[in-house]
Amino acid sequence: MSSLPYPSKQSSASDHRLNYQSTSLRYNQEIKATLEVKTVVPPPSSRGGGEGAATDHNGVFLTWEDLWVTVSNGKKGSKSILQGLTGYAQPGELLAIMGPSGCGKSTLLDTLAGRLGSSTRQTGDILINGHKQRLAYGTSAYVTQDETLITTLTVKEAVYYSAQLQLPDSMSRAEKKERAEVTIREMGLQDAMNTRIGGWGSKGLSGGQKRRVSICIEILTHPKLLFLDEPTSGLDSAASYYVMSRIVRFDRKDENRRTVIASIHQPSGEVFQLFDSLCLLSAGKVVYFGPASQANEFFALNGFPCPTLQNPSDHFLKTINKDFETDPEQGLEDEITAEVAINTLTKAYKSSDHYQQVKRLVTEICEK
């Protein structure tokens, strides 16, 4: 029996073999199960193209048009979760999906990633590089909000074992090991390589470090399309910024040209500045889709300017959140209710240059 790639100190040979066998077997089983769940195959569309096509060297252009998602609501019929959404994501850019709780962020992310449950019904077109096609294994990845790491492994072991399982047999063990170590360094975890992941009752990595390990495991195959579900959930502002800045830095390398789509709840001002594009949802409708840097101007032009020195994302979410528009202590309602604000902004977006630009870009991408 060969030894662990990264053996722990102070262990006898027999203990070492037993630990290796039990840990390796359990890890292989869990990773294989995880990979079966996480394989992302965007759903087929009614337009063009053939299945099984690979992505080109320019990366993945993902578009969706008139996207509706409904779920059965028992005797009451069905409920619309997403209502007529149109948008796109392109290589080398980070698209952030934002909105209050229950607005449809995770549903949109799961729809684009082909992860909707059988109880939901989806209509509309989702296209990859303008065609209906399936991404080859390893071309896309999905980082879930919940951690699925084995707490007894070190960072090195977790990423290296994943490399052994995910990377093709055409790569040697040495090449897989090098890919794992390079990925760890790119996510800024080189100083924690030999630290156990840890969990309840055992010391280990911080929340931000664990999130980066999860991302490491998913990007080992150098996916062209990366989905992130609440990557900053549970992290403080400093850890959130570090995680997102690492993702952005990795995306924008010329050789990678990765397309990244992330659902995110309430980013700090620094994190918000990292976004290239913003999809702002409320009650399943698009309030704004366009460059993140122009969202402030859009809100101001339509009567909802962001106060000086306030985080723009906080202002956007406060404006379109219907849950807290009544003051429970004073019994007073805001002069302009969130319902009015949402209707105003939704109508303004539909008649704006931003919406026309989105439709134009979707058409251009589909015609390439």
Automatic annotation (TrEMBL):
Every ABC transporter domain range: 62-308
SMART domains reported for this sequence: AAA (SM00382)
Major location (coarse): membrane
Pfam families xrefs: ABC2_membrane_7, ABC_tran
The keyword 4Fe-4S is assigned to this record: no
PROSITE patterns to which the protein is assigned, alphabetical: ABC_TRANSPORTER_1, ABC_TRANSPORTER_2
Record GO terms (molecular function): ABC-type transporter activity; ATP binding; ATP hydrolysis activity
Signal peptide start and end residues: none
Residues that span the membrane, as ranges: none
Similarity remark: Belongs to the ABC transporter superfamily. ABCG family. Eye pigment precursor importer (TC 3.A.1.204) subfamily.
Designated name of the protein: ABC transporter domain-containing protein
Taxonomic source organism: Populus alba
Lineage start: Eukaryota, Viridiplantae, Streptophyta, Embryophyta, Tracheophyta
